[in-house]
């Protein structure tokens, strides 16, 4: 496409634009002067150039004008100039006729854009010629070209080819009628295209570009290969198909009204009254295995591994057996499923209150007490425990979940059995590890900046730091020495390097790192033993201790000066629930409604450093603890959210009341 006034040319490629300009302006590609003024498109490209041969075009116009005038003069004075010589271009050949006696030789007008020699000399402008003159036209030479480009997507999943052909332009002289003065011109006589790409050539180019996989046979269509084409999809990789996750089907009946799934997505039945009894031999669980996936591959042959499914826990616990992917009950009782383990526990039902007359209860399975647990009584259960009324001045322990529908007054409630003791030990050695890590970091700073004199031994500096900055460390050591779970190795290290004057025995502060490594091994060992979390659900508690290896849910009016601690979350369900006084500790999250009191009773809420605390209303003197940092409210606040930011600082989002 060409704009005559501005010498603007359009095309799908630069070569096409130049070719169009050469044809239109009779300029060889070697002499053309141009600039690119626009490029557009990614898949469908276009380019625009502007030819800048202004001086040459002006001279052309002068020659054409002079030729036109001379031609007019020849026509007007044809009789007077009949003796002059003549020129003619016919069928692309120049014929020169000499003048007769008294006449003038013919004149040849040579434009500046043509390379013409007359008698061996390069000539421009108006030249007199005779039949003896040797006129040689050096036509522009343009070699036919073909291009094949391969483009690969960023993720190597698709490969494209782009093909273009540029023909050779075969030029000849433009015919001109007989006259005593003519302007010589050239024109394209024919276009000679290069050979078309074939399948073998393309495969060879693909191999050079390392395209080894997913080549599309249909892309070698003759119609596509014989024309200019952009971004033909030539090869396509295969995306990986991930494994399907295994799933577990529960085959026993559940009362959906009583059941509520754990907020973190764990499959567990906290409400032990939500599950029906099963008989011996009943199918209670089935493992449905997901389909195996398939690896993918890029066009360059790189294997893209599929995501493998996570191995789910699917085991038979007490009271059941596994046969392949099925689990059957081996006894009559209440089925349970927690942490991937099925159990069937025999059920002991007590249809009266537990008091001195009945005596304490110790049972290996599930226990239902349809009454109260009165002063001084002790309940110890190997499975789940449900108490339908109040529990006062009692000690209640269950390996499984505990559900108390009444009030808990001045009692101890422990869900998870021995796991609670293990959990307490893990928390103690985690606290000791934090203290030792801080002590080690301080020693590194002391050494780096030369804070103490060179003659001070590391043990002396460590002892001074413990006495001034890490005062909790000795108390933790004393408490841990008495714990039944502490290993002999850790106990020896604490006695010989940390307690009383023992830090003076430390020769190099790196010895602290040996103690930290020993603690880390203990944490990993005992944390792995708390495999199945147990949950506590109570209505209200006062002046009581509640421990759980899972979550604690308070579904009634709240708690008063109690000590509640769990390895999951603590949540007050009722919108008017009150938490007044005491300590509440959770690993992940505490969700409270109203905390503290107008009188400023001290209430303490604590989570680990990655945890969150929420309260709809909190009074002054309420303390929020995140990890080892705390913040105490100075005034009544609403919509409180407390957490630790990425810089290790406690953030308190709130609205002042």
From TrEMBL:
SMART domains attached to this UniProt entry: Jag_N (SM01245)
Coiled-coil intervals: none
Positions of the RNA-binding protein KhpB N-terminal domain: 8-54
Protein name: RNA-binding protein KhpB N-terminal domain-containing protein
Organism: Clostridium frigidicarnis
